[in-house]
Amino acid sequence: MKLTLSQAQTIISDCLEWRKQNDLKPLCVAVLDSGGHMIALAREDNTSTLRPDIAQGKAGGAIAMGLGSRALYERAKVEPFFIQAMNALCDGALVPVAGGVLVKQDGVILGAVGITGDISGNDEACAIAAIEKSGFVADGG
Question: Most buried pick, 33, 80, 112, 137, via CB within 10 A?
Fold first, then answer.
């Protein structure tokens, strides 16, 4: 089982449509495979230049730790030194805030979606809606 380019592009399209329907700010959406490699990325007009790195950091952190980024955020509150150490191991690329959502099928992690641009809870809700619309299980943590 793997996440395909076509599936990743559909998830991105569904994210951007959900964003419009829910009046979110412009988003950047990254879809990574189970190894943490980029499949697809979209950055809407009027998003800041750091957004692709943030989206990849949310998704990549979820893949690297096997936890949705909301769980990483909760863990950072109680064990900040652990998350700092993990971030050091990732060369600073781990972004432990909501918006990095694992894509699962039959309990297997196929990849992750990272979204940034609105508040983190909205980023996460958008990712979950698009992942589930594609028939996968979303795990935000």
Answer: 112
